[in-house]
Amino acid sequence: MDIAPVMISLKTAVFSIVFTFFAGILAAYLVVRIQNEKVKMVWDGLLTLPLVLPPTVAGFFLLYIFGVKRPVGSFFVEYFGVKIAFSWGATVLAAAVISFPLMYRSARGAFEQVDENLIYAGRTLGMSEASIFRRVLLPNALPGVLSGGILAFARGLGEFGATAMIAGNIAGRTRTLPLAVYSEVAAGNMEGAYKYVLILVLISFLAVSGMNVAAGMFRKQGRRR
To answer: In the predicted model, what is the mean pLDDT of the chain?
Structure first.
């Protein structure tokens, strides 16, 4: 069995979650702080859109933006010598875009569940908004934030449609585990497909188990307090 898809998928998921985790937390915090409900709804809709769009449609938009002959794609090629479309970087881009809404929605839900009295108390004590975020909001929302990170990691690992559109299915370069499953089935090699499917199922199960273990630990700590 070719292990290249396994390594490419793991590397893609790790790099994408680094961006998605912090960008999702920041976006959730900024949206929660918006006072105008209509503006909040618009931003929430835009940030959640990749979650409800078919992955191939999201991939189409990414290809339209980052294609070699498109403004952004040609800019990177001309000034940085970097080709985004149909490269390993495109797999990271696709995974990050598709998994971002899960991280954002989880972080936003966790922030909104934090008792507002704690935030008001921090302001009464003269704490800055940045300090309140670091010392009050984020620690109390941490279980939901971490759960979102795990879900986003698993979603990025299993991304297929957008990856196929913008990164292609290039063996040894952009062929991730889902694409490897598709390729093996298309070639009639069901045994090879079974092996890749088993790896995906095991990794996904470990991710969900890790989320449940983390949630249990936080619940125990909350009871002790």
So the answer is: 90
Over the stretch 170-183, which tens digit does the pLDDT of each residue have? 999 999 999 999 99
Q: What is the 3-state secondary structure (H, E, C) of 176-203?
A: CHHHHHHHHHHCCCHHHHHHHHHHHHHH
Give the integer Cα–Cα distance in Å for 130 and 134: 6
**What global pTM score does this model have?**
0.89
Position 204 confidence tier, pLDDT thresholds 50, 70, 90: confident
The dihedral region occupied by 176, where left means phi > 0, alpha psi between -120 and 50, and beta the remainder, is beta
* Spatial CA neighbour of 97 closest among 71, 68, 60: 60
Name, in order, each residue with C-beta under 8 angstroms of 146's C-beta and a sequence gap of 6 or more: 211, 214
8 Å CB contact between 47 and 104: yes
Which amino acid belongs to residue 90? A
For the beta carbon of residue 174, count every other beta carbon within 10 angstroms. Answer: 23
Neighbouring CB atoms inside 10 A of 139's CB total: 12
What type of residue is 91? Answer: T
